[in-house]
């Protein structure tokens, strides 16, 4: 499998490069922005390959099977266009995408395999299903989502927190946008809403908690990350899977075949 890493000079890009080297997978391109100070410099994690950081313009259809994108939302159109030009699958891990950019993912998936994951942790994927199940089973419970990240994170609530909110809404057959969802401020809580609270401090990598509370009891589902390698491993796992899939739009739960797993559990119950 031939891989290209987009946003290769960033923290997650570096973690993915290290994971590819650990798994002895072939990294064919380490892509950065045209104005990046890393452009043309050697890739430290892969000294034996003499690979240098590039803007990806040199890539051809035989060079790359799958791309892993940990860049910024503003680069999404460029990255999707590149994937389509060379016919490569693409795992998009960029958070903070708006509705228009989500539609652009869908449009690109008509011609190449696209997997979008606001969080590539396998644990978060499992938690998403648990949240939907708990929300549906407790239709009257108040739902609050708390997330914490490092002080440099740009978007709030995090993409993962929103995914968990969407799962909670879906568990009740609803849309998140219709539930007065947003950062919790002053004032009385509105019944049926889903609230978000955000913490930004120091070097916290990522923590998410979903609280479902009703009189006399509550359920707390929590996921904490202690090492960015978790996201890198998940992204590489997703890339391995996606490289052999046909054009289409996918999520982490498709890679894990969660639908089959949940159906089996339902049948056993």
Summarize the structure.
With 269 residues, this protein is α/β, with parallel strands linked by helices. Helix content is 34%, strand content 23%. Helix 1 (11-22) links the parallel strand 1 and strand 2.
List keywords for this structure.
alpha/beta, 7-stranded parallel sheet, 5-stranded mixed sheet, 269 residues
Alpha-carbon Rg, integer:
19 Å
| Biggest sheet, spatial arrangement of strands | 3-2-1-4-5-6-12
User: Which structural class best describes the helix and strand composition?
Assistant: alpha/beta
* Biggest sheet features: 7 strands, parallel
Distance between the termini: 40 Å
Structure description:
This protein has 269 residues and is α/β, with parallel strands linked by helices. Helices cover 34% and strands 23% of the residues. It is built from 8 helices and 12 strands. The protein has helices at 11-22, 76-86, 99-108, 122-137, 159-171, 229-242, 252-255, 258-268; strands at residues 2-6, 26-31, 53-54, 66-69, 89-92, 113-116, 142-149, 182-183, 194-200, 206-214, 217-225, 248-250. A 7-stranded parallel beta sheet has the order 3-2-1-4-5-6-12, with helices on both faces. A hairpin with a 2-residue loop joins β10 and β11 (217-225). 39% of the residues are buried. The model has no long low-confidence stretch (mean pLDDT 94).
